[in-house]
Every structure is written in structure tokens, then in C-alpha cells.
Design brief:
The complex is a heterodimer of chains A (about 800) and B (about 100). Chain A starts with a helix and ends with a helix. With about 800 residues, chain A is mainly alpha-helical. Helix content of chain A is about 70%, strand content about 5%. In chain A, about 50% of the residues are buried. In chain A, the strands form 4 sheets. A 3-stranded mixed beta sheet of chain A has the order 1-2-3. Chain A has a two-stranded antiparallel ribbon with strand order 4-5. A two-stranded antiparallel sheet of chain A has the order 6-7. Helix content of chain B is about 75%, strand content about 0%. Chain B contains 3 helices and no strands. The longest helix of chain B has about 30 residues, at about 60-90. Chain B is elongated and about 50 Å long. Classes of the chains: A mainly alpha (about 800), B mainly alpha (about 100). At the A-B interface, helix 31 of A face helix 1 of B.
Chain lengths: ~800, ~100
């Protein structure tokens, strides 16, 4: 036992030594070259959720049976709290470290090595990874706690928590992985967990389909990610000629597998060059001016196209899948089939931001290609307005939030696309808070209304659920961009940077993005306050008591499809309710409906009710964060005189931020734009209030009537799902039918023919074996047996007979001797 | 009238050998076979003495010594042979060699 402290101190001393050396190198070459400091306990952060998940997988059902649900959530929440603590320790350690050394790495082992490809299982957190780790662990912990209340009546309680823990593990792999492969493991892992959680109530076919849809759509994106990764790896290899690092002539001449790793090339500044999977090494190669790597990537072409744009667009396709951007956003609204805490954690706060995180993580790559940056920003901007417009007329509260999430992710992509990486990440962070709060608030509302998700059947909840109401309102302020709330700072910063952007391929495109983004922001404010007023003001329009509820509610299913037909024809939003009731098919009750039995005893009268403490406290914490995080982390330089805290913190991770140009602008111009932002938010709010407060105004219904056709198009999400159904899915089905035919007729007949050939050959071979080989063997055996039988007669046993033989032989020899001679 | 020479002795020896051989091959009595063996041995003795006298010379004793060896050996052989015959008799209750065909097994 005494050796342990010694060992620890030795390790610490070694780490310090390494740190000093790194500092010395960094001083010599300037701060653009990042040196890693080894922190040997980083692996604990993802390890605890994995452990929790493993325990619940192996023993969950038995634990829950013997000790009750408390056991399952104690394991899961405990694992999250431990993980959180370790993350906190790492965070404070990072603060105590000088800026250029803020690259903590924890190399566990080399997973495989082949030629120039070396893949390590290692974790690395720089300030960007640290921020993501903090968001993931903390928001996840809060949502775990919330889930103990929300899922209290779920029979497969342990299964929910095992998926949730596994998700956090995968997400931490994604944000903490120090190389592309570990990140990709996490990337796929979160996709899997997303599938498992969306389809959590898999007995409902609609939910199972939604899970499958998310999984399949994400595959398209992942394909782009992998292609980008391959091209990147290829483009990094090369040889050293004429004092410059030049690419190999072509793929054909490149020995990738089986070739011994070539001798390391080192740039004049001491950076090792060549193919790598490690983010930090890649970053150093590109940031190092003397290596010529950035010029090389910029000049390199593949099939006549600039390689850097191909790489970045490949990665961005991956991001559109994971982060639900046009054209791959369609899975996210359907993902609302999952339990609400899942929607909050995975489909709002963490997983869907993975694409934004990745683009920010690869900022040095994207900054090399104005084309890729323009694509990112444009797609983000189009998604923002497109999703916001769909959000205008949805009635399902979770759908509104889902489209809002897609829209806000678009804003983040505008940020990272125009080169304001820190602003994109800032919006990611504030969005994690306010969107998690909104989703959890909607979950609380859904519970309050006995699993009703249709906002037309809510209303007046303010007096029944005061805490939910205030937290929801606070989050609405934040997302709409009211002054001093967090969303104001982050969204304003993004739009301002878009206006002044100078790194895009066309100069005017920044202004265009600003205008479209501003309209999307107006829409955001409108639909959020619309959902607030429809839900919390006026009179309660929900069902009364159990029977009604039993017949009506389909808590998590996507009943909106059925609602749509009824709603389009109805003259008034609220009058449509009756039609909806008629149109809604009573569904088979899944396990989630066990709810009604005990926790909500008080709800049997049909009156909405406030949620348990485990949920309201989490709501309060998130609402607090949603309001104040902007002031703390992102107070603009215009107001405070120095750069925002978050920008300063993230600077070591974002070397490209200094290289992307922005147009100079005066302070008054920036103030004007901030004022514009506030005006936009206020306009959206006032419109929503006029139209929807207390459900009194008849204007929405009239408008709907006069523009019925347009309304139906938007309400049905521009028929994008139908479009996909008619094109991609139909084509896939057609293709699969063709392939089935080929399989049946071509492949099968070929296989059968080969089988027939084999059988014929075998028949001939069997005959040969039976008659020739066996004949020879048996014949020989017969010969010997018969010979032996004959010869044994000679052995009589009579000595005298033998003697006769010997004598005869002797006489024969004698005679022979005379004859021969 | 020629004197008695080596060929005469050899002829006697050959005759003795032939008689002994025929006795050994044809007699069914084991004791008779032993007697045939004695005849063969003595045929050899006659040859030894004859060769010693006519080839080595009258003063030399090599052939005589061999003969004495053979006589001693014949005595021993007779003793062992008779013992075997006794053993055969005890096993088969006969000394007819036609009956004793255990070697065939």
C-alpha cells in the first residue's frame, strides 16, 4: 500500500516534466503548435456511464425485481454523477493550465496499425472538447434525474436507463475522442442509442418505424463522413521532394496496406507530417506555416475537383445527417416518438449538435475552403428558415420543438459556416440549456395533460403548473432572443458575424444569410410564443377524466398524421378538436400507460397537475442556465470592452478563427444590428400574443381559411416526407425488387448450375473411386489372401518333410552347379 | 591290384551318410532318427580320418582330434536327443514323429 503514493507522485512528476518540455517547445515555435499534456484519468469520464449501462444490462431486471426501480436509477444516476465529478476536475485542471498547454490526452492503447495508418484508443480534450464534455455530462445528469420522475411507471425502467447511460458513453466518445476513429465510434454509437430510444416503446409500430427512419437516414450522412475521412487520409500522404512536402502521384502508386511505415517527415518547426487520424496532429500540420501542408491541401485536386472542398463537404454531409439539416433533417421530427427526456437529451441538447461540434473541431480544414464554408452556412440558413416555417402551424407541442431544434441547428451551422466558430459553439451551449428546458417543460405539460400532446387540447395550464409555466416562459425568452437572455447573445453574434463575413466564396452571400436568418429568428420568436400562449393561457380545453383520456390520448405516437386530415377541413383550430377525436383511432395501450395507476392519483378528476419535484427542480436549474449563461459566457466585446469569456476559452481549439476575415464595422453599426435583433424578437412575440393569447382571437382561423392551400402545404411539412417516399424510398424499393429478380433468376440459376456441375463431377468421381481405386485395393488384398491360403499348406509341421525340402534343395543346387558349369 | 586309397574311404563315408540320411528322413520312430543322426556323424568321422591320413600326412593329428570332438559331441547329442524324445513321449504318449506336428501351429 505504501508504494501507491510513491507511484502516484512519480506519475505526477513525469507528467509535470512532460508539460515543461511541451511548454519549451511551444515557446520556441509559437502557440499555433499544440502540445499535449498527458492526463491519465480522462478515460474515467466515459467509463462510468459505460459501467452503469453494463450493470443495468446484466443485472437490471433482477435488481429492479428485488430492490425496485430505485436500484436501476441509482446505478444510472450514480454513474452520471461520478462522470460529472471527474469532468469537473478536468475542467478546473484545464483552468489551472496555461493556455497553449490546454490539450489533455489520455492514450489507452493502439487499436491497430497497418502501414501509415495508426489508430489509437485515446481521449483528448482541448477547450472545445472540454466544453462539450461539460455540457454533455451536466445536461445528461439533469435529464437522468428528470427521467426518474417522468418514467416512474415504465415497467422496463432499467432498459431505459441502460440506453440512456450507453448514449452518454457514446456521446462522450464522440466529443472526447482524440482521433477520427474514436469519434466515429461515438458517432455511430449515438446513432444506435438514438434508434434504441426512439423505438423504446417498440410495441407501437409507428415508434419502431420512427426509430428505423432515424437510423437509416443517419446512414446516408455517415457515408459522407467516411468518404470525407478516406479522402483526407489519402491527401495527407506524400513524399518529401525539393524541400517541400508533395503528394504522391496517384492512388495506384500508393501502398497503403502492408507497406512499412515510412520514416517520419518533420517540418522545419518540428511538426511531424504525414497521414494521421489524430485531430491535434492534423491541426498542427495545417496550422504550421512552414510545413506547406495547407497550401498543398488547397492545391490538391482529385478528379478535377479541389480535394479540400470534397473532404469538407463529405464531413458536412455526415453533419447534415446527425444534426438534421437539409436534406437529411426528416428523421428528427419523427424522433419525437421517443420518451420526452430522450427528445431533450438526444434530439435537442447533445447528439444533434454533434455535426456542429465536428465542423468546429475541424475548423482548420473548413477555413481552407471558402466553397465548403459557403455550403455549410447556406445549408444552415436554408434549414433555419425552412424548419421555422414548418414550426408555425404544428399543433403537436413536441413537433413544434422538433422543428425549432432543426431551425436552431441551422443557426449553429451559419455560425460555424461563416467562420464564427465560437459563436456557433456558444449557440450550441445556450441551445442545450434552453431547448432541454423547453423539451422537459413540454414533457411536464404532457404529463400534466395526461399524455396529451396536441396544443389545441391544452390551454390555461399556467394556473395548474406554475413552475413549468415560468421555466417554459424563461426558455422562450432565451430562444426568442430577448435582451439579456442567453439566446439573444448567441443568435445575435451569429447573425452579426454572418453580415460581416469575409471568408465566403461570394461577398454578398453573407448579407443574404443575414436577411434569411433574421426572418428565421422572427419565426422562432413567433412559433415559440405561439406554443407558449396556446399551452399556458386561456381555458383548459383538455379532456375530463379517465374515460375521455383512455379513448383519446396517444401520448407519444405521431398522431398528427391522422390529425392533419381532420384539421385541414375544419373551419376553426379549436373546433377541429371534435373532428380529431373522431379521426383518432383508439390505440392499443403500451406499457407507458401504467402511469395512470398510482403516481397521478390526483389527476383522475381530469384536472392538470404539476409534476413531481425531481422534474421541477431540473426545469428550474435549466431555466436558470438558459437565462444567465449568455451574460456569463458570451457578453459581447461591444458591451464589456474585452472579448467574451467563451471565445477566449475556446481560442486554443480554434486556430482558424483568426484566419477567417471579417469586414470591419463600427460600434454603432453593431449596436444597430443588436437593436434590430431585439425588434425582431419583439415583433414575433407581439404577433404571437395578438393571435394566440387566451385563444380568443379569430384571426388565425380566418387566415387559415383564406390561405387554406398554402396552410395545408406548410402544415404537411411541404410534403417532404411524401417527396422522399415518392423518390428515394420508391426508388429503393424498385431497386430492391430488381435486385430480388436478379437474385432469383440470375444468381440463383448460376448457383444452381454450379451445384449441378459439382454434383456431376462428384458422381464421376464416386464411380472412379468405387470401381478403380476400390477394385485395386480389394484385388491386392484378395491376391495376398488367396496366396497365403495356398502357401500355408506347405507348412505341415513334420520335421521330416522340411528335411526333405532341404535335401531336395541341396540336390537341386548341386545339379545346377554341374549344369551351369 | 591297386591298394586301398582315399576314394574307397570316401565311398564308405558317402554310403554311411546316405544310409543315415535315409534313416533320418524315413523313420517314424524318434529313436530311429537319432540313430540315423549317429550314422551321419560317423560318416563325417570316416571322412575326417581319411583326409587326415591321405591329405595332411600320417604324422599329423588334426583329423583325429576333430573325430574325437565329433564322438564326444555325438554322445552329448544323443543324451539331449533322448531327453527330448522322453519329453515328446510324455507330451504325446508316442514317439511317432508323424504325430508330433506342433510346429505347424
Amino acid at each position: 500500500m505504501t508504494t501507491l503514493p510513491l507511484l502516484l507522485s512519480a506519475i505526477l512528476a513525469q507528467a509535470e516534466h512532460a508539460g515543461e518540455a511541451a511548454a519549451a517547445v511551444a515557446e520556441r515555435h509559437g502557440t499555433e503548435i499544440a502540445q499535449a499534456a498527458h492526463v491519465s484519468w480522462l478515460w474515467l469520464i466515459p467509463f462510468f456511464p459505460l459501467l452503469g449501462s453494463a450493470i443495468n444490462t446484466a443485472f437490471g431486471p433482477r435488481l429492479q425485481k428485488r430492490y425496485g426501480k430505485r436500484a436501476a436509477h441509482t446505478v444510472a444516476v450514480g454513474a452520471m454523477v461520478l462522470s460529472c465529478i471527474v469532468a469537473e476536475v478536468a475542467f478546473w485542471k484545464m483552468f489551472a493550465t496555461p493556455e497553449h498547454e490546454r490539450f489533455f490526452e489520455d492514450h489507452l492503447w493502439t487499436m491497430w496499425q497497418s502501414g501509415t495508418l495508426k489508430v489509437d484508443l485515446s481521449f483528448g480534450v482541448d477547450p472545445l472538447g472540454m466544453l462539450m464534455t461539460m455540457i454533455v455530462t451536466h445536461v445528461a445528469t439533469l435529464i437522468h434525474i428528470y427521467s426518474t420522475g417522468y418514467m416512474a411507471d415504465e415497467p422496463a425502467y432499467w432498459r431505459f436507463f441502460l440506453w440512456l447511460n450507453l448514449f452518454v458513453f457514446s456521446m462522450l466518445l464522440l466529443v472526447m475522442g482524440s482521433n477520427f476513429v474514436v469519434m466515429f465510434f461515438g458517432w455511430e454509437g449515438v446513432g444506435l442509442c438514438s434508434y434504441g430510444l426512439i423505438a423504446f416503446w417498440y410495441t407501437d409500430i409507428e415508434k419502431a418505424k420512427a426509430g428505423l427512419k432515424a437510423f437509416v437516414v443517419n446512414r446516408f450522412g455517415d457515408f459522407g463522413f467516411v468518404i470525407g475521412l478516406f479522402i483526407l487520409f489519402w491527401s495527407l500522404s506524400g513524399s518529401w521532394q525539393d524541400n517541400r512536402y508533395v503528394p504522391d502521384p496517384g492512388l495506384a502508386n500508393q501502398k497503403v496496406l502492408g507497406a512499412p511505415a515510412p520514416a517520419p517527415r518533420v517540418s522545419p518547426a518540428g511538426v511531424q507530417l504525414g497521414p494521421t487520424m489524430e485531430f491535434r496532429e492534423l491541426r498542427n500540420q495545417i496550422s504550421d506555416e512552414s510545413s506547406g501542408m495547407s497550401e498543398r491541401l488547397r492545391d490538391l485536386t482529385l478528379w478535377g475537383m479541389p480535394v479540400i472542398a470534397l473532404i469538407c463537404i463529405g464531413f458536412f454531409i455526415g453533419a447534415t445527417g446527425k444534426s438534421a439539416q437539409i436534406p437529411l433533417y426528416v428523421w428528427l421530427p419523427d424522433a419525437m416518438a421517443g420518451p420526452t427526456p430522450v427528445s431533450a437529451l438526444i434530439h435537442a441538447a447533445t447528439m444533434v449538435t454533434a455535426g456542429v461540434y465536428m465542423v468546429a473541431r475541424l475548423n482548420f480544414l473548413f477555413a481552407l475552403s471558402p466553397l465548403a464554408m459557403t455550403v455549410v452556412a447556406t445549408v444552415g440558413c436554408l434549414t433555419a428558415i425552412f424548419a421555422a416555417s414548418i414550426g408555425f402551424f404544428q399543433y403537436d407541442i413536441k413537433k413544434v420543438l422538433a422543428y425549432s431544434t432543426v431551425s436552431q441547428l441551422g443557426f449553429m451551422f451559419i455560425g460555424v459556416g461563416v467562420g464564427a466558430y465560437w459563436a456557433g459553439i456558444f449557440h450550441l451551449m445556450t441551445h442545450a440549456f434552453f431547448k432541454a428546458c423547453l423539451f422537459l417543460g413540454s414533457g411536464s405539460v404532457i404529463l400534466a395533460c395526461h399524455h396529451e400532446q396536441d396544443m389545441r387540447k391544452m390551454g390555461g395550464l399556467a394556473k395548474y403548473t406554475p413552475i413549468t409555466r415560468w421555466t417554459y416562459l424563461a426558455a422562450c425568452w432565451a430562444i426568442a432572443g430577448f435582451p439579456f437572455a442567453s439566446g439573444f447573445y448567441s443568435k445575435d453574434e451569429i447573425l452579426w458575424k454572418a453580415w460581416t463575413a469575409g471568408g465566403l466564396s461570394t461577398p454578398w452571400i453573407g448579407h443574404a444569410i443575414y436577411v434569411v436568418g433574421a426572418i428565421a429568428a422572427l419565426g422562432t420568436s413567433f412559433y415559440m410564443f405561439r406554443s407558449y400562449y396556446m399551452t399556458f393561457t386561456g381555458e383548459y380545453r383538455g379532456g375530463h377524466g379517465h374515460e375521455d383520456k383512455e379513448r383519446l390520448e396517444d401520448p407519444h405516437a405521431m398522431a398528427a398524421h391522422q390529425h392533419a386530415a381532420a384539421a385541414v377541413t375544419a373551419p376553426n383550430d379549436f373546433a377541429a378538436t371534435a373532428d380529431v377525436v373522431a379521426a383518432t383511432v383508439p390505440h392499443q395501450h403500451g406499457p407507458d400507460h401504467a402511469h395512470d395507476t398510482h403516481v397521478h392519483e390526483d389527476a383522475h378528476g381530469g384536472v392538470p397537475h404539476e409534476s413531481p419535484n425531481s422534474m421541477t427542480w431540473v426545469l428550474a436549474a435549466l431555466a436558470f442556465a438558459a437565462v444567465v449563461s449568455g451574460i456569463i459566457f458570451g457578453l459581447p466585446a461591444l458591451w464589456s470592452g474585452h472579448e467574451p469569456l467563451l471565445e477566449k476559452f475556446l481560442a486554443p481549439s480554434l486556430p482558424a478563427a483568426e484566419k477567417v476575415p471579417f469586414a470591419p464595422a463600427s460600434h454603432s453599426e453593431e449596436l444597430l444590428f443588436q437593436f434590430l435583433g431585439v425588434a425582431i424578437a419583439a415583433l414575433g412575440w407581439i404577433t404571437a400574443r395578438t393571435l394566440y393569447v387566451d385563444a380568443k382571437s379569430q384571426v388565425p382561423a380566418r387566415l387559415k381559411e383564406s390561405f387554406a392551400r398554402a396552410w395545408a402545404v406548410v402544415y404537411n411539412k411541404y410534403y417532404v416526407d411524401e417527396l422522399y417516399g415518392a423518390t428515394v424510398i420508391r426508388f429503393s424499393l424498385f431497386l430492391s425488387r430488381v435486385l430480388y429478380w436478379i437474385d432469383q433468376n440470375v444468381i440463383d440459376s448460376f448457383v444452381n448450375f454450379m451445384g449441378w456441375v459439382g454434383r456431376s463431377v462428384a458422381y464421376v468421381d464416386a464411380a472412379f473411386d468405387n470401381y478403380v481405386v476400390d477394385g485395386a485395393v480389394n484385388g491386392l488384398a484378395d491376391l495376398i489372401m488367396n496366396g497365403g491360403r495356398t502357401l500355408r499348406r506347405v507348412q505341415t509341421g513334420h520335421i521330416q518333410a522340411y528335411l526333405f525340402g532341404a535335401l531336395g534343395g541341396a540336390i537341386v543346387f548341386v545339379i545346377l552347379q554341374y549344369v551351369i558349369r | 591290384m591297386s591298394s586301398i586309397g582315399l576314394p574307397h574311404f570316401l565311398a564308405v563315408g558317402a554310403a554311411l551318410f546316405a544310409l543315415g540320411m535315409v534313416t533320418v528322413v524315413t523313420r517314424r520312430n524318434a529313436v530311429g532318427i537319432l540313430m540315423g543322426v549317429e550314422l551321419i556323424l560317423n560318416a563325417a568321422n570316416v571322412n575326417f580320418i581319411a583326409f587326415n591320413h591321405f591329405v595332411e600326412g600320417p604324422g599329423r593329428l588334426t583329423g583325429q582330434v576333430f573325430s574325437i570332438f565329433v564322438i564326444v559331441l555325438a554322445a552329448a547329442e544323443a543324451a539331449i536327443g533322448l531327453a527330448i524324445v522322453l519329453a515328446i513321449y510324455q507330451t504325446f504318449r508316442t514317439i511317432d514323429v508323424e504325430e508330433t506336428d506342433l510346429l505347424r501351429e
